[in-house]
Every structure is written in structure tokens, then in C-alpha cells.
Amino acid sequence: MNKVIDKLAWLYIADNKLLHARSKNKVLFYLPGGKRETGETDQQALTREIKEEVSVDLIASSIKYAETFEAPADGENADVTVKLTCYFADFEGQLTPAAEIADIKFIDVQNKALCSLGSIKVIEWLKSQELLR
């Protein structure tokens, strides 16, 4: 039986690059976001996770569903999949790594090998939608 890690992710593009975060105990970069807590909506969970990870406040009225992706989960057994429900949103504040985040980086299509398989799928989709070149 396959296990699915259900996560929410924020898609923020600037200068033709997509914002990524790297945890202190990881090598690869991934999309900022995380898991819902009991009773949270996607919007509530995403807003909380983004505040915890990169110190900014998402603007609720700007949060828009993008797409959902599935890929093998980074650092897990082969039967574990990550499901990324992705949203676009504007924000207020200064992007700063916080909590378990060691680094944040804007990554372009040419450097997608720095990212988890889930992030690579998202980058390729954004390219296909002509949102990244």
C-alpha cells in the first residue's frame, strides 16, 4: 500500500525564478508550505506554514489554487508519494528563513536539479503554462 504525504505549497515567482526553501537537515530545495493541522482549511494551513517557514503574511484575498502534483517523496521509501496542492498568493513582509528553514533561494528552470522531485514537476508545469521560461 502506498503512503501519501499531503502537503500544501506556495508558488511565488520573481524574475523568472520560483521561490524554494531548504530545511536544515536536507540537501534539496522544496516549495515552501507544509501539512494541514486538524480542522484547518488549505488557506489557513498555507498561511500558517508560510509565516512559520519564511516569515511573511500571505494576503488572504490573493490566494488562488494553481494545480495539484504527485511525486516520489524526498528521503522516503519508494512507496511514499508527496501530494502537493499548490497555490499562488501575494504577501506582505520580508522573506526570511525561519523555524527549520536553513536557506531560501529563487530557482530557475536551468537549476531545477537542486530541487525535490515534486518541485521539479511544478517547475516543469509552470514552464508549460509559460509562467517560467
From TrEMBL:
Keywords: Hydrolase. InterPro entries: NUDIX_hydrolase-like_dom_sf, NUDIX_hydrolase_dom. Its cofactor is Mg(2+). PROSITE patterns: NUDIX. The keyword Protein biosynthesis does not apply. It holds the Pfam family NUDIX. Residues 1-128 form the Nudix hydrolase domain. This is NUDIX domain-containing protein.
